[in-house]
From TrEMBL, chains A, B:
SUPFAM superfamilies: FAD/NAD(P)-binding domain, FAD/NAD-linked reductases, dimerisation (C-terminal) domain
Family: Belongs to the class-III pyridine nucleotide-disulfide oxidoreductase family.
InterPro entries for this protein: FAD-bd_OxRdtase, FAD/NAD-bd_sf, FAD/NAD-binding_dom, FAD/NAD-linked_Rdtase_dimer_sf, Pyr_nucl-diS_OxRdtase_dimer
The protein, known as: NADH oxidase
Annotated ranges, domain Pyridine nucleotide-disulphide oxidoreductase dimerisation: 330-427
Gene3D superfamilies to which the protein is assigned, alphabetical: FAD/NAD(P)-binding domain
Domain FAD/NAD(P)-binding: 1-285
One Pfam family hit: Pyr_redox_dim
Organism: Methanobrevibacter smithii (strain ATCC 35061 / DSM 861 / OCM 144 / PS)
EC number(s) on file: 1.6.99.3
Superkingdom of source: Archaea
Gene Ontology molecular function, alphabetical: oxidoreductase activity
Keywords, sorted A to Z: FAD, Flavoprotein, Oxidoreductase
Transmembrane stretches, start-end: none
Length: 444, 444
């Protein structure tokens, strides 16, 4: 069986490895335009900040490592054509153009950074962060910069702006929407995070898009905002999200949904022997039971398990997603899962919400930190979302809530579940239990 | 409605508070032989070690605080008789003897420390740790001591021996069984913890009970073991467990089970208008569906919610328990939930187990620590137990596993659940997922 995988990100490389585990004999070829594979893009901000000492540290495997398990990785190679009737893929690299056959084709083409339409976006010093090479360029440019503007206050934007602040730059985070992290946090929770960023000397501009960038000698120098204000900027990072790359999928004849490639629960596209996963496909939202986009590496990794089983003739269904996420900026950890209350409302679900402030340890134990928790339920008390911010112990609580939501638990049911306790690590009544008890009272 | 509660521990005081929340008018009287109520006994070791500066810090509320919400707390008062036909309780204190009526009686009498039968147990310098007063005595005695032996390597024993070590004493932990924490950990996991304690200069004696204590001028000086060896001991702590206090329950005519008072899921005893909770009752084990004893403060607190609802005429059922626990000694956090594999075997369940070593953060992120996880499944793959040891992020993972076990999940099902990821706080495939994936392979 000849498997050709287009794309060397989390989805593509995990698929290659998972197929190899299930089938010793498959001929597996990965084609990627990038220079590096099997690195952790989520780690780029932490290399920039200096927490991780080098970009080389976040590369987990080289093409040579894959060669050892008989997986061919063609780097710096661009797939230019797919013919799903002849079952061929054509690619170009330094050696020229070549067309190869496939039995099974996997599209793991990911997404392209969205470049907002604005004057000056082509100036030197304006960056996107797609891969390690971009990371290295930003690192280099930052060395001679005094000020930076990051536009787009999603996870990557916040992590990057914090990293540049830690390098000593004067930094501004600019977001078109009236709050940061609009996809995962409600505005009251986002405000807590914004307060922390401001306390850390990050200038936060909300509700104002950048209208144009102005340069000197071809290098960016100033950013102008919708309200007419202007900020010095020796560098500008566009963290305004990614758009699924669909060109090859369209060429292959795959059905495309509202945003991305349509796949079924086996990760099959509408075209026989063509599969897809990761940032270029639509997933099903567990709560809305409607299609969504999940831009998480963890989703791609989990999809790759199902895809590898499907291709090797084994049963597996990929479950709908909740988009559980966590991040850490400076001292603060924040995470979320499920729907925000505003997103619930947009989808005609009336949210019943409660926000509590608890502690990460027994109140008399040294260094107990405040923990803000927001719980979102539907009108029957079923938990549909949770957001947490604290200096410690956020990630695993998000995992507990993800499992609770996956299992369809109500706030009443979760308030009766056991939680482990010891003074140095929790409160006698866990913050999550306090939160679900409080929201439960709204149903009396 | 006159409610009389016997016992001022976690069970008794939480019941009083929870009844007050549900019924503004109930006359509530708590009778306790102790001087303090509403303190956290789990925190005593951390006061001893100096982590928490004073015993006063761990007292959350005084009898006067309860008076403010119209709850009468009679301290230093011993209940000497219960008459469940006349519905009266008789108690004695400095003011003499008094008999009062009740409409509802709650027995929250807890347990008494078990004193192993050995010569020299009455010497000065031999302590049990029941309450704050005991804690203060131990703290005082330790100031003039050079060496200490703690017998009984359950949670309290380990936390106390570590605290005395931190005070600079030469310490020995002695356990009759061939491993430490036999109730919660399998021997392979216990060995990891034992290794850490030894590295921290704690002498650990396993499989050898203390046979006698020897003194000088009435003060303990030496401990002798079954193998004839002898260790200097200026103080000895008996941490050999507690036995439920059942005297009043028997006087009231309550049915007693194998170990403790029998209650139904509403926390009712066999005698009308007599209720019980905490260390003096039997709970149902979720997996074995048989009675067990749960000596956890968290169990008592959860039982108090059901009991308060029952007494005030509201519906609530107390669920079977899994005994989820966590502790922290020095740098190391350890936790467990459900059955150990050895306990499963004793109960005719053939355990399918796997133990993995993962990391607490992405492997390239600074200060990623090893995390040891053991998963125990039954022969159908249903998860029935989990044990975790690491320097961070154990407690909440135990909570996630508690929820998974409560929901009856198999290792196959849990391996498909979403987990949140960011390099500073987890691995891209969560340690729990790695563990359940590994154990799943044993079913192929």
């Amino acid at each position: 069986m000849k498997v050709v995988i287009v794309g060397g990100g989390a989805g593509g490389m995990s698929t290659a490895s998972n197929i190899r585990r299930l089938d010793k004999d498959a001929e597996i070829t990965v084609i990627t335009r990038d220079e590096n594979v099997a690195y952790s893009p989520c780690a780029i901000p932490y290399v920039l900040s200096g927490k991780i000492s080098s970009f080389d540290d976040i590369i987990m495997k080289t093409p040579e490592d894959y060669k050892e398990v008989n997986i061919d990785v063609l780097i710096k190679s661009e797939v230019t054509a797919v013919d799903s009737s002849k079952k061929t893929v054509t690619y170009e690299n330094a050696d020229g153009e070549k067309t190869i056959d496939y039995d099974k084709l996997v599209l793991a083409t990911g997404g392209n950074p969205f470049v907002p339409p604005m004057e000056g976006v082509d100036l030197e010093g304006v960056f996107q962060i797609r891969n390690i090479e971009d990371g290295r360029k930003v690192q280099q440019w930052a060395k001679t910069s005094k000020s930076a503007v990051v536009t787009g206050a999603g996870l990557i934007g916040i992590e990057i702006v914090f990293a540049l602040k830690e390098l000593g730059l004067n930094v501004t985070l600019s977001e078109m929407m009236p709050q940061i992290v609009p996809r995962s946090l409600d505005s009251d929770m986002a405000d807590i995070l914004t307060g922390y960023l401001k306390m850390e000397n990050i200038h936060v501009m909300l509700g104002e898009p950048i209208t144009k960038l102005e340069g000197e000698d071809g290098k960016v120098k100033k950013a102008y905002f919708g309200d007419g204000s202007c900020i010095d900027a020796d560098m500008v990072i566009l963290a305004t999200g990614v758009r699924p790359e669909l060109e090859l999928a369209k060429m292959a004849g795959c059905d495309i949904g509202r945003w991305a490639i349509l796949v079924n629960e086996k990760m099959e596209t509408s075209v026989e022997d063509v599969y897809a996963l990761g940032d270029c496909v639509e997933s099903q939202d567990l709560i809305l039971q409607a299609n969504t986009i999940s831009h998480l590496g963890t989703t791609a990794v989990r999809e790759s398990k199902t895809l590898a089983r499907t291709i090797t003739g084994k049963k597996s269904n990929f479950n709908p997603v909740l988009n559980a996420m966590v991040s850490k900026v400076g001292k603060l950890e924040f995470g979320a899962v499920g729907l925000t209350s505003s997103f619930a409302q947009q989808n005609n679900i009336k949210p019943i919400v409660e926000k509590v402030e608890a502690l990460t340890r027994a109140r008399y134990y040294p260094n107990a930190k405040p923990m803000d928790i927001k719980i979102i339920c539907d009108c029957n008390g079923r938990i549909i979302g949770c957001q947490i911010i604290a200096e410690e112990r956020v990630a695993e609580r998000i995992d507990t809530m993800t499992l609770a939501i996956t299992q369809g638990l109500s706030c009443f049911e979760l308030s009766n579940v056991e939680f482990a306790y010891a003074p140095p690590v929790s409160m006698v009544t866990d913050p999550l239990v306090l939160a679900v008890e409080e929201v439960s009272k709204k149903f009396n």
